[in-house]
Design goal:
The complex is a heterodimer of chains A (465) and B (243).
Chain A (H helix, E strand, L loop, with lengths): L9 H11 L1 H23 L3 H17 L1 H14 L3 E5 L2 H14 L4 E4 L3 H6 L1 H7 L3 E4 L2 H9 L15 H12 L7 H18 L2 E4 L3 E3 L4 E6 L3 H7 L3 E7 L3 E2 L2 H15 L7 E5 L13 E7 L3 H5 L15 H5 L3 H4 L10 H11 L2 H4 L11 H5 L6 H14 L5 H14 L2 H13 L2 H4 L4 H9 L10 H7 L3
Parallel strand pairs in A: 1-10, 2-3, 2-4, 4-7, 5-8, 7-10
Antiparallel strand pairs in A: 5-6, 6-9
Helix pairs in contact in A: 2-12, 3-12, 9-10, 16-19, 20-21
Chain B lengths: L8 E4 L3 H6 L1 H13 L3 E3 L9 H5 L3 H15 L4 E4 L2 H14 L5 H6 L1 E3 H8 L13 E5 L2 H6 L5 H8 L3 E2 L15 H4 L1 H13 L6 E4 L2 H14 L6 E3 H10 L1
Parallel strand pairs in B: 1-2, 1-3, 3-4, 5-6, 5-7, 7-8
Helix pairs in contact in B: 2-13, 7-9, 9-13, 11-12
Classes of the chains: A alpha/beta (465), B alpha/beta (243).
């Protein structure tokens, strides 16, 4: 779900957000400042370096034996009474969902927070089938009411200020314009309670899926996922094929690392471990549980020698929180489901390289993301990899290619380079700089740099006192 | 330096931005190193380390510049740069870019200026020239995260009598990022604004990298909002010695 834009429009959308909606930048900066402080504290409470090594190695093992684990997972899930569907593409995943909707004559669906369902466009598909679908996570509910996609993996509405929400709830539910957050949450709760009770279908993603026991693990803070997966008579879980972990006991390690990296909590308020449909001796639970395993470009990533490491991602949002580029605009400017660093390395495989441009270039390679990633994805390295592929595929500007070719030639000959430098220092930046390709971009937002009167090489030749 | 040890010899690699835009700061680096008993050479033929091409995904061009730089620096005992970013390029990325060409050997002997002074020369007190000055330090991303330099510049500034003023955004990227600053100027400027908007009062802001300083000072001037001047770390440290 892209909110009406595409990655190709990144620069224009980012510029528009900064110029026309400055409240987005301040809301996102303040929310992510908070998460960053919490993550720092939460990592410091454990031997996080060791846990991150463990998580990296565990996921690397899983991914290098994925074929075997997927088959074992299917057997475990089926053994627990669940039904398993395989989807190579988004279209196949939606077809599987449509089959379930028709089979059960589903009219109303409730959805717990899930980024994969955003990636697949589940809501639009259900609405097209005439199914009423409601987001149950408070942040997701807010953006759904506004007709927007989530702006952040974990905090879908962090680009909204309290005033934005007060206005929205005032218009929708008649709460006071100065209602406090608890009052707003109560208003949403009253509406959502009815939605939970009347839904035929509950939809979720999965944070992890334990292969040995066939267990779907879900982390949340609000209880909406637990209700979505236990009240309706049918539960459908969309699961990316990279979400497996070998054993149930591995889930414990991953849950704490994910929540520490994400919100700085030692564990989510609710962790649901789903073992199948309601059994005869149980009070709650759905009659049927379906797992739809989704590839949708993930095996393309897996086949890539460098970028396969991105499949370790646990969708904690830490890289978005710390990314100084993401923090300027939030996620919408990126034009697809996953904004920020992780999105820029997933997009070329999930959407196609050309469709992803210029996202791999929307980074200064500052490295802050790799510093905080709980599963140690080398994000800058993978960004560079996609940049190299983009150059090979001819997807970068000709002026850049020509400019760098000339620069390289000059850099191999000191005299040429010095002459170029002298020209650069002499250049009337203030007068004509705007007309030149690279300098134009610079001059748009910054004053001309003041070149030294003489180059250092000239000072050196003259002798330094 | 102890008398029985021979004077360390340094090849100063001034970087392309340093050569053209921070010539006086590079000269201050020479003055500082000589003051510390170092023999400084500026190898002829030095140009660009290749980082702009490398970060743009143009590996073959980056390789050509890296090879040229490697040849220029081949005989150096130590290579010192008044830049964390370019030092990071040589130290962290040359070995994989030029596998087998002796790049590891040069990488191990390559240092950012403050890192060299503290880690190799073992000096942390330069003088009292910054006594009473309130200084804000911007950590360049590549000095901080590629080279792991966090304490060296701060220790040297404090050693010169400066008070290093805490800054909430000290370790955040300024938005320069080489070509990034020209390709995505609006976002880049927003990143600089975050830095400038959170700056505490100070006598000056300093950093190890010319690119960051051009970005921050260029944006600051563009906004006409006033604020402290931006000074290259090499010049700040030489002031620390000479007052």
């Amino acid at each position: 779900m892209s909110g009406g834009t595409t990655p190709n429009r990144y620069r224009a959308e980012a510029a528009r957000t900064l110029a026309e909606r400055p409240s987005v930048r301040s809301a996102v900066t303040s929310a992510t400042d908070h998460s960053n402080a919490n993550r720092g504290r939460a990592y410091a409470e454990i031997d996080s370096e060791r846990w991150r090594d463990w998580a990296r190695d565990m996921k690397a093992h899983l991914l290098t034996h994925l074929d075997r684990y997927l088959e074992e997972a299917e057997a475990s899930l089926v053994g627990n009474g669940m039904r398993v569907h395989w989807a190579g593409t988004a279209a196949e995943a939606l077809t599987a969902l449509r089959g379930i909707v028709r089979e059960h004559d589903v009219r109303r669906a409730i959805k717990g927070k899930s980024m994969l369902t955003e990636e697949l466009g589940v809501n639009a598909h259900l609405e097209g089938l005439g199914v009423h679908v409601r987001e149950a996570d408070l942040g997701e509910y807010i953006v759904q009411l506004l007709g927007e996609p989530p702006t952040h993996i974990v905090g879908p509405a962090i680009h909204k200020s309290l005033a934005d929400c007060q206005r929205l709830f005032h218009e929708r539910f008649g709460t006071a314009l100065d209602a406090d957050p608890d009052t707003l949450a109560s208003a949403a709760r009253a509406v959502l309670r009815e939605e939970f009770l009347s839904a035929d279908l509950g939809i979720s993603g999965a944070n992890f899926l334990a292969v040995d026991t066939g267990t779907i693990a879900l982390i949340e803070n609000e209880g909406n996922i637990r209700l979505s997966t236990s009240l309706p008579r049918v539960h459908v879980a969309f699961v990316g094929i990279e979400k497996l972990v070998p054993r149930l006991e591995d889930v414990a390690g991953f849950v704490q690392l994910t929540t520490r990296g994400s919100t700085g909590q030692p564990i989510g308020n609710y962790v649901s471990l789903i073992q199948g449909p309601r059994r005869p001796d149980e009070i709650d639970g759905p009659d049927e549980v379906h797992v739809i395993f989704v590839d949708n470009g993930r095996t393309r990533l897996l086949a890539d020698d460098v970028s396969w490491e991105a499949l370790r991602c646990v969708r904690c949002g830490a890289c978005q929180n710390i990314c100084p580029v993401y923090r300027q605009t939030g996620g919408h400017a990126y034009g697809w489901t996953y904004g920020g660093p992780i999105g820029a390395i997933l997009a070329p495989a999930l959407l196609g390289l050309e469709e992803s441009m210029p996202l791999p270039f929307a980074s200064t390679l500052c490295g802050a993301c790799a510093d905080v990633c709980p599963v140690r994805i080398p994000i800058p390295e993978i960004l560079l990899h996609w940049r190299e592929r983009a150059v090979e595929a001819g997807l970068t500007a000709t002026s850049e290619a020509v400019g760098l070719a000339v620069f390289t030639k000059a850099a191999e000959h000191r005299a040429l380079f010095a002459a170029g430098g002298a020209l650069l220092r002499w250049l009337p930046w203030k007068a004509g700089g705007r007309a030149l390709p690279v300098l134009g971009g610079w001059m748009q937002e910054r004053s001309a740099p003041e070149p030294s009167a003489k180059s250092f090489q000239d000072l050196w030749k003259a002798g330094i006192e | 330096m102890s008398a029985h040890r021979s004077r360390p010899k340094v090849a100063l690699f001034t970087t392309c931005l340093g050569d053209q835009f921070f010539a006086e700061a590079c000269a201050d680096a020479v003055r500082l190193l000589r003051h510390l008993g170092v023999t400084v050479d500026v190898p002829k033929g030095q140009t660009c380390c290749g980082q702009p091409a490398f970060n743009a995904g143009r590996r073959s061009e980056a390789k050509r510049m890296a090879r040229h730089t490697l040849a220029v620096l081949a005989d150096a005992e130590h290579v010192v740069l008044p830049s964390g970013s370019c030092a990071g390029m040589i130290r962290c990325f040359y070995p994989s870019l030029l596998a087998g060409d002796g790049a590891e050997r040069i990488g191990e002997r390559t240092w950012e200026l403050s890192q060299f002074v503290v880690e190799v020369l073992g000096v942390d007190h330069l003088g009292d020239g910054l006594s009473g000055k309130r200084v804000v330090y911007h950590h360049s991303c590549h000095a901080l995260r590629e080279l792991g330099i966090r304490d060296a510049p701060l220790a040297l500034l404090r050693g010169c009598g400066a008070e290093v003023v805490p800054w909430i955004a000290a370790e955040e990227c300024c938005g320069f990022g080489g070509l990034f600053s020209a390709k995505l100027p609006e976002v880049s400027a927003g990143m600089a604004d975050r830095k400038l908007d959170t700056l505490p009062p100070a006598d000056f802001v300093t950093s190890s990298d010319a690119g960051c300083l051009l970005q921050l000072s260029g944006r600051s001037t563009h906004r006409r909002a006033g604020g402290p001047p931006f000074v290259h770390l090499a010049s700040a440290l030489w002031r620390g010695v000479a007052g």
